């Protein structure tokens, strides 16, 4: 189902959309940084789960991890109010980036640049929901070190 703005866009003859909509839980507290010009940026990982029964009737669960980036006022809100385990709605665009690290090795990253976030937990519920275990490939214990990611 498309929202009103998307329908107007499509009716206007435009055929391309880059839009991601996710509902999931934060894998860790948001990391707050600033660009060289002083723009606030938050980064966090979001876990989304899907469940099904395999051919033997056993329950299978798969978790996908998404890198989320927010800027400016939304970054301030995320940095101040979100914590590990928070249930959130995220809407944004998919962005791919590449950069060379200090050793000249090229790295690639896919992330969601959020333009909308809604907190879905009841008041105080997020702090009690810290049972999300971050994927090591996206956390500080592995994967691309966050200090190597340019802003």
Q: How is this structure best described in words?
A:
The chain has three helices and six strands, in the order H-E-E-E-E-H-E-E-H. The protein has 151 residues and is mainly β. The model is unreliable at 128-146 (pLDDT under 50). The longest helix is centred in the middle third of the chain and has 10 residues, at 72-81. The chain has a single domain (19-130), classed as OB fold (Dihydrolipoamide Acetyltransferase, E2P). It has helices at residues 4-11, 72-81, 125-128, and strands at residues 20-26, 31-34, 40-53, 59-71, 87-100, 106-119.
β-strand number: 6
- What's the CATH topology label? OB fold (Dihydrolipoamide Acetyltransferase, E2P)
Tally of contiguous helical segments: 3
The percentage helix is 10-25%
Summarize the structure.
This protein is mainly beta. Helices cover 15% and strands 44% of the residues.
Question: What characteristics describe this protein?
Answer:
151 residues; mainly beta; OB fold (Dihydrolipoamide Acetyltransferase, E2P); five-stranded mixed β-barrel; 6 strands; 15% helix; globular
How would the blueprint of this fold be written?
Blueprint: H1 4-11, E1 20-26, E2 31-34, E3 40-53, E4 59-71, H2 72-81, E5 87-100, E6 106-119, H3 125-128
Parallel strand pairs: 4-6
Antiparallel strand pairs: 1-3, 1-5, 2-3, 3-4, 5-6
